[in-house]
Structures are given as structure tokens and as C-alpha cells.
Amino acid sequence: MHDSSEWEKWLAQNAPRFLLFARQRAPCEADARDLVQEAVVESLRGAPDGAPPPLGLVYTTIHRRAIDLARRESRRQKRELSASLESPNDWFDPDIEDRERNRLLQQAMSTLPETQREVITLKVWGGLTFAEIAKVLEIPANTAASRYRYGLEELRRLMKELAR
Amino acid sequence: MTESEERHWESELRRAAPAPVPAELLEKLRKAAASSKRSAGHSLHPFVVLRLVRGWYWAALSSLAIVVCLLAFPALRGSHSKEIAHSPASGPAPARLPVVLVDHALVSTYEAVAEMPGGLPVRFQCRKWMDKVEMRDAQGGLVVEQSTPRLEIVPKCLETY
């Protein structure tokens, strides 16, 4: 049996990463939070002895649920309404010192294609290897690596441009 | 970007930590974790026990039914292979087909303005793509990989005076 402190530590460390990844895939903030909650609950069902589930499993579940979400036409109206009402949420910790830099980073990330954004998120902040990312996103590892490389270059270029 | 530049840029990006999870969501995740711990405990709810027993019962019954059918109707055992033998399109067991993966990655997008003969400016939307095809054999080894860069230039608008 795993005690509460282990769970607290696991949630404190990984929940922000899950939410960051979900924000890359979901059309609005409410959907991103739902994705995280549903994915954690579903991943916990398969966990033995109540242990925290593997990170790859949670990311994979977020990825698959995001695909299902995108297919559901009925969400389109909710998405349009939510996008018009809510102000953009911070993707990164709005620390006073780096607030401007984090804002630029979020702005640059949002202009990247989703396929590159999701790989960068999983590699840089998700703590996964290319092999694990390939399993989560159901793509070849070489594709994950090339998307990462191109995305990183583009991100660096965008950050420089936005900083001017 | 070289590998060391890539590693340096990666560590720079990591300075930005993901934003904390809103309290409401964190509470929901804590409750989910707590109920998962309870269900993994040693004492199972009687309803859960009943469901497990019923599950095992049906699994055992269906296995028994399959065995009985196979013993009672020997023809069933060979039917699959006969079907294959009689099928006009069949021959020897088909070899596993190679897996083909096609990927179109958008590398960058930018706008450019060009001047047409006559002096009219035209704005173009330029997109740089990387088309990739991978073909692997049935054992999972990479056989062929081809990456082709492609530049897509689309006129965005034609301004007239």
C-alpha cells in the first residue's frame, strides 16, 4: 500500500506536467482540466496496490481522450463560447522574475504546430525519452525526434523575434 | 542547431516550470487517488467480491463451452485451414505486410511580399514542410526512409490600386 505522502508528492510533481500537456491538446482550459482528471482516474484503475500509475500511461490516456474529444462535434459550440469568455491561462509558473520570458515562451509555443508542441512538451517538461514519446503519441521514434528538433529550432527563432 | 546547442536550449526552456494546477482540480485528483487506494485495500466490498466471482464463473463457463464444441465437432478444428485451402484467392499463408508510415511535418511558416512585373505587390504565405515516408518490414526493422523538404507558396492577396 502506498501512503498519502507518496501520492501527494506524485501529484505535486506530475499534475502540472499533465495539465501543460493537456493544454496543448485541448481547445479550451475547461477541456484541458477534464482531460487531466479523466486520464488520472482511468490510469489509477489499472494501478496495482493503489500505486501511482506510470507517467507514460497517463500521457497516453490524455492523448487518446484528446483525440476522442476532437471528434465530438457537440463540443464545438462550447469551445467557441469558452474561448470568447475566458482569459488565457498561464502555461508556465508566473514567477515575477521570469514572468515576461514565460509569457513570450507561451506565445511562441502557441504558434507552433500542435505536432511539434506536444513533442516538445513531453520531452522538455514531461520527462519522457523519444521512445516513450513515440509510444504515447503512437508515432515512430524517428518522427518524434525530428518533430522535436524542428520544433526547438522554430521555437528559438520565434522567441528571438518576439523579444525584439 | 548542434547537439550541445540543443541541450543548452532545452535546459533554458526547463527554467520555465509548468504552472501549478488550480486548487479545484488538485482536490479532484486527490479524491481520485484516495478512492483508488481504498479500492486497492485488503478488504474488498462484498459487491466487488460478487462481481469478481461472477466474472470468473462466466470465464470458466465460456472456456468449457469452447472445449466441448471442439471435442464434439472435430470438423470445427480443421475448418479454418480448409476455408483457406478452398478459397480461390488464398495460397500459402500471406507474408506479413511491411508497415508504411507517412508523415507531413510543418517546419516553419512565414510571409513574403514580392513585386510583380508592373510594380504590383503580392503577398505570399510560405510554408516549409518535411514529408517523410518510412517503410518497415514485419520484424520491425527499418527498411526504407525518405525525407523530402517541400516549400508551399500560396498567394494571399493581390492588392490593386
Quick overview:
The complex is a heterodimer of chains A (164) and B (161). Chain A has 164 residues and is mainly α.
Structure in words:
The complex is a heterodimer of chains A (164) and B (161). Chain A has 164 residues and is mainly α. Chain A has helices at residues 4-25, 29-45, 55-71, 75-85, 99-111, 114-125, 130-137, 141-163. In chain A, helix 2 (29-45) crosses helix 3 and helix 7 (130-137) packs across helix 8. The longest helix of chain A has 23 residues, at 141-163. Chain B has helices at 3-14, 23-39, 46-72, 74-86; strands at residues 99-115, 121-136, 142-158. In chain B, strands 1-2-3 form a 3-stranded antiparallel beta sheet, with no helix packed on it. In chain B, helix 3 packs across helix 4. The chains are: A mainly alpha (164), B alpha+beta (161). At the A-B interface, helix 1, helix 2, helix 5, helix 6 and helix 8 of A face helix 1, helix 2, strand 1, strand 2 and strand 3 of B.
Please tag this protein with its features:
heterodimer, A: 164 residues, globular, B: 161 residues, alpha+beta
Task: Summarize the topology.
The complex is a heterodimer of chains A (164) and B (161).
Chain A: H1 4-25, H2 29-45, H3 55-71, H4 75-85, H5 99-111, H6 114-125, H7 130-137, H8 141-163
Chain B: H1 3-14, H2 23-39, H3 46-72, H4 74-86, E1 99-115, E2 121-136, E3 142-158
Antiparallel strand pairs in B: 1-2, 2-3
Helix pairs in contact in B: 3-4
